[in-house]
Design goal:
alpha/beta; single chain; binds iron/sulfur cluster; binds 1,3-dihydroxyacetonephosphate
């Protein structure tokens, strides 16, 4: 999208933080001036009491006015979520980022979300992730090097650019979205995956789906693809650990990736709930294991989970298989209708990286912006942003 960058988006972001400086386009006058201004160091915010951090967020927010928009994913902690201008699941937040007019898009979510906001926003808009340590462990399970190797190995068996559509879950780095853009592929989210698979199969006979095997398997199953036609590609083994015959027979090749938060949910937790509350309902996120999704009454994205529970009849009891911050907030919001929302996990299943965005980091980010200093900018290099945008726009058009 023509945005400036000197290296990979991760390096660029790190660079900004380590030096406490903003590093903008060489072409931009405003940026050249801004480069000389040192950012306020995070050290001053690290020990900030929660209440003071809240007040400083509000004050900085008021100073910024419409220049900044705060987008929050549903997994954000309550003390950050309350400052959201807009909330949503990954698909909704992508659209909102692409439609925003704000100069600064402050993304309270994880790294890939801020990358998508950067790719889909205009060149002069700036995408910011308040804590650069907020990654996604599932996204890290597929790298460009490993996906390119898989593509090369597949070409020993078939012609991937003729026979395989690469589909990346939005929970992936920008370079993988770029790979999909360059190889006739597409991005999907948890709310549109079956529709995106239809798009993919309309073009080529097979799909390579990464990084989340569970979303890929569940979406394939919903489309009626037999389980034996979905195989697992283990990136650490030669030919993914598959035989040529297995690849020839497969319709979906699922990357061996998963979310460690959703992986914790088990069918036994659903069985216990149903035994205790036969009228209760179960809803899960499609990143949960297949057996959990199969045993649920409904499966959907974070946004779908929230709307389904909110639209259910008063007095309904729900067991919810997704991240704890969302479940706790939802339970609170619907309890006045006599609805009871229970968390599926036996242990605490929080997304520790989403949790990294705390009031201290948000206050630090916003105060810097209010002072005219940009910290933690996420800037995807143009050579990745352009093809990644193609794959994202294919998704937005198809969903
Ligand atoms: P949603 O798109 O459903 O919000 O999911 C994002 C995510 O990371 C779930 O773990
Ligand atoms: Fe990634 Fe799982 Fe966290 Fe979602 S819940 S951001 S998939 S680690």
């Amino acid at each position: 999208n023509g945005k400036p960058s000197e290296s990979s988006s991760r390096f660029m972001a790190q660079d900004c933080t380590d030096r406490g400086l903003i590093k903008f386009s060489r072409q931009s006058q405003a940026s050249r001036i801004a480069m000389q201004i040192a950012a306020i160091s995070f050290d001053k915010f690290n020990a900030l009491a929660d209440q003071e951090a809240q007040e400083r967020i509000r004050a900085a927010r008021a100073r910024l006015g419409k220049r900044a928009v705060i987008l929050c994913h549903h997994y954000q902690r309550a003390d950050v979520f309350r400052h959201a201008d807009l909330t949503g699941d990954s698909l909704k937040l992508s659209r909102l980022a692409s439609q925003s007019d704000a100069e600064f898009i402050v993304f309270c979510g994880v790294h890939f979300m801020a990358e998508v906001a950067d790719i889909l926003s205009r060149p002069e808009q700036v995408s910011i992730l308040p804590d650069l340590a907020a990654g996604c462990s599932m996204a890290d399970m597929a790298s460009l090097a490993k996906v390119e190797r898989a593509w090369r190995e597949l070409s020993a068996v078939l012609d991937p650019d003729e026979q395989v559509t690469p589909v990346t879950y939005i929970n992936s780095a920008a370079d993988l979205k770029a790979f999909c853009g360059e190889h006739g592929g597409i991005v999907c989210t948890s709310s549109n995956a079956p529709k995106i698979l239809e798009w993919a199969f309309a073009r080529r006979a097979k799909v390579l789906f990464f990084p989340d095997q569970h979303l890929g398997r569940w979406s394939g199953y919903k489309m009626g693809i037999p389980m034996e036609e979905m195989v697992i590609w283990n990136p650490d083994l030669e030919l993914g650990g598959l035989t040529q015959a297995q690849i020839a027979q497969a319709r979906i090749i699922l990357w061996h990736g998963y979310c460690s938060v959703h992986q914790m949910f088990q069918p036994a937790q659903i069985e216990r709930f149903r035994a205790q509350y036969p009228d209760g309902k179960v809803i899960s996120h499609p990143e949960a294991p297949f057996e959990v999704c199969k045993a649920s009454d409904a499966v959907g994205s974070t946004e779908k989970i929230i709307t389904t529970v909110k639209e259910s009849a008063a007095g309904t009891r729900w067991l919810v298989g997704t991240e704890l911050n969302l479940v706790d907030r939802l339970a609170d919001e619907v309890k006045h209708e006599g609805k009871i929302v229970q968390f599926m996990g036996g242990v605490i299943c929080m997304c520790s990286t989403m949790q990294r965005i705390d009031p201290q980091h948000l206050a630090w980010t916003l105060e810097n912006l209010a002072e005219g200093k940009v910290v933690n900018r996420i800037a995807v290099p143009p050579h990745e942003a352009a093809p990644a945008k193609i794959a994202l726009e294919r998704m937005l058009a198809a969903s």
